Amino acid sequence: MKGYVVCEASEMKPGERKLIDADGKSIGVFNVNGEYYALRNICPHQFAPLCQGKVTGYCAPSEVGTFSWQRDGEIIRCPWHAWEFDIKDGRSIFNPHRVRTKSYDVKVESREEPSVETFAAKVEGDVVVVYA
Amino acid sequence: MRIIDTDVHQSWPDPKEVYNRLPAYFRNENFTIPAGTHNNPVSVNRMDAVSPSGDPAGTNYEMMRSQHLDAFGIDAAILTGNSILGLGVHPHAEFAKAMARAYNEALLETWLSWDERFFGAMLVAPQDPVAAAAEIRKLGTHPRIVEVLMCSATRVPYGQSFYWPIYEAAQEMGLPVSVHPGTEGRGLSNGFIAGPPSTYLEWHTNLSQNYMGHVVSLACEGVFEKFPRLKFVAKEGGLAWIPGVLWRLDKNWKALRSSVPWVRRLPSEYIVDHIRFTSQPIEEPERPEHLRQLLEMIQAEKTLMFSSDYPHWDNDSPKHAFPKLPEALMERIMYKNAEETYPLAKANVSSSKEVA
């Protein structure tokens, strides 16, 4: 497993996402309410770029005639065919056990500044790193 | 092998048997069932089903008994009436309700009292579901009433909550709710989605369209979540469209399920669990194995019930309609699925609950 720096933590606000190329692998990295998650940018259905779809919520199963909108901002909807996936683990909503895309660990780490002679390294902020 | 025939059309030599039971106003002011414009050029009724005394097809008990029940060894026949379903598309709901009551009364007093093999489908007027529910609770206890019947032609599809009082009452009484074609394009109904065709040939072929609409509506509106013990019987609507519509519905549900969040499983699962289809007019592909494949696709061992449609022109013979099928599957189709769908056994328990 290898770490890929995505961006400065301050560059991705809650609700935002970035796509990165991890040695040829396209990965979507999401900030969901201050927590970071990453998914393979491939829908298992017809290999569409899943992570370029709408970040949204969904209606949980409910009584007939009622709507229960939940998990707003935690669901990615594929731009092709509109299958819903949980950003946090890559599992589909309609069949979480059999239909899923790969998810990756994301960490927020201190920037590793190269030491320059006798000058003290100045840490300007944290970076988002995805391990894939 | 036992045979339960889930669609037999009986009526009376003189239509007055029903019309004379109407309240005086409707009787005297010429209210009639809406007529169709797509007349069958080869006659709706079998010419060989006219009785020796000249009674029209399906109106003479002895003829039906010898020609159909006895000839094929039919153990139970569900009577669904003839040229009466159109009450359900009449614009006048009060007339429709009165006509349904008159028909049900005639059915109980005549045909259902003539032979122990006869069971009845009670008619209700879908124009007034609350009144229909009251009729279902009133007649539903009768030992020979085993289903509720309406026309498949409608103004709005049968899943919508407008109709739910009917389903609530039917579930309570342990009766399936069934629909039967024939009145498409008449009275209040929408007819076909592409517009009225030129010929009866096209009209008859298109009858499956309404069934697609009703089946999709029943699953998506959550009827079987709301009424988990309800069975719905789609009579005479064809079979070969079922796999295509169910595949399409399931695929769309994967994308659009948030619009019907009460549909908790694949919609096709509700349909297979709750909807039963009758066999006539059985599709006849050039290669019989295609019909066998179709029966596998629609899970016929759960969903399909034999029907003859006697005495109509396109009726099916219990002996010769199907290609060679495994014995166990034939048993499911010819009687076991019907036994599990219809409360036929209540006729044997007691007659003490009979209602007038």
Detailed description of the structure:
The complex is a heterodimer of chains A (132) and B (356). With 132 residues, chain A is mostly beta strands. Chain A has a single domain, classed as Rieske [2Fe-2S] iron-sulphur domain (Rieske Iron-sulfur Protein), CATH 2.102.10. In chain A, 0% of the residues lie in helices and 44% in strands. Chain A contains no helices and nine strands. Chain A has strands spanning 3-8, 17-22, 25-32, 35-40, 54-59, 69-77, 84-86, 103-110, 126-131. Chain A has a six-stranded antiparallel beta sheet with strand order 1-9-8-4-3-2, with no helix packed on it. In chain A, strands 5-6-7 form a three-stranded antiparallel beta sheet, with no helix packed on it. In chain A, a hairpin with a 6-residue loop joins β6 (69-77) and β7. Chain B has a single domain, classed as TIM Barrel. In chain B, strands 1-2-3-4-5-6-7-8 form an eight-stranded parallel beta sheet. Chain B is globular. In chain B, 39% of the residues lie in helices and 10% in strands. Residues 351-356 of chain B have low confidence and may be disordered. The longest helix of chain B is centred in the N-terminal third of the chain and has 17 residues, at 93-109. With 356 residues, chain B is of the alpha/beta class. Classes of the chains: A mainly beta (132), B alpha/beta (356). The interface between A and B is medium-sized, with 18 and 15 residues.
Strand content of chain A: 35-45%
Multimeric organization: heterodimer
CATH top level of chain A is: Mainly Beta
Task: Give the proportion of residues in helices of chain B.
Answer: 25-40%
Strands of the largest sheet of chain B, in order across it?
Answer: 1-2-3-4-5-6-7-8
Stretches with pLDDT under 50, minimum 5 residues of chain A: none
Give the helices and strands of chain B as they follow along the chain. EHHHEHEHEHEHHHEHHEHHEHH
Number of strands of chain B: 8
How far do the termini of chain B sit from each other?
35 Å
Count the domains of chain A: 1
Approximately how much helix is present in the residues of chain A? under 10%
CATH fold-type name of chain A: Rieske Iron-sulfur Protein
The average pLDDT score of chain A comes to: 92
Characterize the overall form of chain B.
globular
Q: Can you identify the CATH class of chain B?
A: Alpha Beta
Q: What would you call the structural class of chain A? A: mainly beta
